[in-house]
Amino acid sequence: MHHAKEAHHFDKPPSHAFALPREGRLTELLLKEFPEAHFNDEFQEWRIDWDEKAFPHQGQRLDAFATTHELEIFHRY
């Protein structure tokens, strides 16, 4: 597990990113689990903005999703 044990404070909230196509089976699963995910056209990846109020549950859910589907989580600041 790579997530912090305490919430950090940022000037601009970071995002977690998955290198998935705009459409497809894994993308559908991602959107079902994280309806707040948005596609970043510039980098061609799905992003989920960090939510301090959801800490640490959001990170646990991200880790579980990545592990289940053998995906890497990228951090965008």
Largest sheet: 4 strands, antiparallel
Query: What string, H for helix and E for strand, traces the elements in order?
Result: EHEEHE
Q: Give the distance, in angstroms, between the N- and C-terminal Cα atoms.
A: 19 Å
* Average pLDDT over all residues: 90
User: How many structural units, i.e. domains?
Assistant: 1
The amount of beta strand, in percent, is 15-25%
Q: Helix count?
A: 2
Secondary structure: elements and pairs:
Layout: E1 15-18, H1 25-33, E2 38-40, E3 45-49, H2 57-68, E4 74-76
Antiparallel strand pairs: 1-3, 1-4, 2-3
Word description of this protein:
- This protein is α+β, with helices and mostly antiparallel strands.
- It has one domain.
- The chain is 27% helix and 19% strand.
- The chain has two helices and four strands.
- It has a four-stranded antiparallel beta sheet with strand order 2-3-1-4, with no helix packed on it.
- A hairpin with a 4-residue loop joins strand 2 and strand 3.
Quick structural gist:
This protein is α+β, with helices and mostly antiparallel strands and 77 residues long. It has two helices and four strands, in the order βαββαβ.
Relevant terms:
four-stranded antiparallel β-sheet, alpha+beta, 77 residues, single chain
